[in-house]
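User: My collaborator sent over this chain with a note saying "see what the structure looks like." That's all I know about it. Can you take a look?
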Amino acid sequence: MTTRRTLLAGAGAVIAAPAVAQERFPSRPIRLFVPWTGGTSSDVQIRSAAEGAAQILGQPIVIENRPGAGGTLHCQALASAAPDGYTLGQMHLSVIRRPFMVRQPQWDAVRDYSHIIRLAGWMYGVAVRADSPWQNWEQFVTAMRAAPGTLSYATSGIGTTNHLAMEELLERVRGEMLHVPYRSSAEGVTGVLSRQVNSIADASSWKPMVEDRQMRALCVWTENRVPSLPDVPTLKELGHDMVVTSPYGLSGPRGMDPGRVKLIHDAFHTALMSEAHQRVLNQFDMPRQYLNTEQFADFVATRADYERAMVQRLNIRLD
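Assistant: Without extra context I'll predict from the sequence alone. Here is the result:
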């Protein structure tokens, strides 16, 4: 005979079952913010990694390009999204740096995000039109010293890594140039080709123009010379102890479940280490700079201290 106690126990089990059941993750597409225009080196690299990770996770990873604001237009949307693993975004140095350049920061890169994996870095350099009078970096420096503030350089935005690195480089060579920020590195390349600016200091979007002999590279900011540009010196070879690659990765909103973080990390790690993805990195001369979840979180925290000091030293403000 069924007792009242048995009925209540059974009902309790039925009620409790959904609470302990674990949703399969992911069970629907994942959105990934890329804060650059389509076709740029970072966009192509992240798309490639996302395609590989999606095959492992069993769900599409949909790229949503949000260019502008020096690559930080996606930051608030990412920070305010549900921490369920279905919204991710690129975490790069400008995201860490920008709060130190405004009076009222809208996010804190250390506290407001769940950092998942560091992926790669950029190949930066300075390039000019092929028909310009400057055959090398030394001639370019001589020209900028002769007419301070007359020559100009393009970047993908105020306060970006390439902007700050170029300002530091100008300090080192005792030169002065006009900074012209564009919404993207691709627009900066167009600016050089159309003679709106004299040069570009940015990631490798200018490299195809160098290969087509429309532009000339004066220097690269990598540790060693780039194999596809063997005649272009590094900053270290030019006497400056500077290596600038601006490593970046993927993060989600604060408070993500560690299990879901691990699933996403492992899928992207497998994709990052694949031969197919290495070919993409080689295409843009991008260094693979992997860090796991804990290491990446430590990197962001340490880098935040460095960026705060750098912004204060160079006195770069956005408002």
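A starting point for your reply to your collaborator: The radius of gyration is 23 Å.
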